[in-house]
Write a structure and sequence with these properties.
CATH topology: Immunoglobulin-like
Order of helices and strands: HEHEEEHEEEEEHEEEEE
Largest sheet: 3 strands, antiparallel
Helix content: 10-25%
Strand order of the largest sheet: 5-6-7
CATH superfamily: Glycosyl hydrolase domain, family 39
Number of helices: 4
Shape: globular
Number of strands: 14
Radius of gyration: 20 Å
CATH architecture: Sandwich
Length: 253
Amino acid sequence: MNRRVCLSIKKVHDQIAASARPNLPLMWTEWNVPSFGPLSARDSVYVGAALADDIRQCDGLVNMMSFWTFSDVFEENGPKREPFDGGFGLIALGGIKKPSYSAFALLHELGQERILQDSSNVLVTRRRDGSLAIAAWNLVDPDTKGPERSVEFEIRGVPPDSRVRVSRADSEHGNTLAAYKSMGSPRYPTESSGPRTESCGGSSVRSRSSAVKRFDQLETTRERRCADGSAQEIAAARSKQAGEQGDQWVRCR
């Protein structure tokens, strides 16, 4: 199921390439990740890993992909009755940014040039300033259970004082659905109905830890400088579930 979007895009791409007008642009103007029916996967952290995997698969086959849609509130389904009802959008009723919103914000940090590699759960890119931006994920369908996965990056030829920043969106960071459920899933959440919808557990770290100010903060960041004169850095991450990462670190040697 996780290949359905890009298989469809490839089919149309190949049809255009074989046509009398092979240079026609291909714009895929409505797509989303699978919903898995009653599991309402589009409300969950599953979306982040699924988005990244679609980008990996579809790159080079299409000129533009337009995600459907920005908000759960639109005219086709009539008035909304509660947030997190499995809708297509990045933002739920009441302006609550869903985990998919955080995932898009994180993926937006990728660079303009893709660097090819063989892994099916990694995107390596280069930004215009020459820095690398790498995305890694562990995609597991929400109706199944998958094993933990360790990912280790070995980056050669970098200056000894280079910095590595690790950001993440997972079940503990940017997961507004979990915060909403911790409030008792009120139909119309307010500040008095439980923990504020602007604050949830997690941390935002830059060299040292600090508290997150909003529950829809998209990432946790760790940044360390290699001070031992090494010319090689390894950034490693352990992902526990779909789109979720556990311990993350940078080692210098």
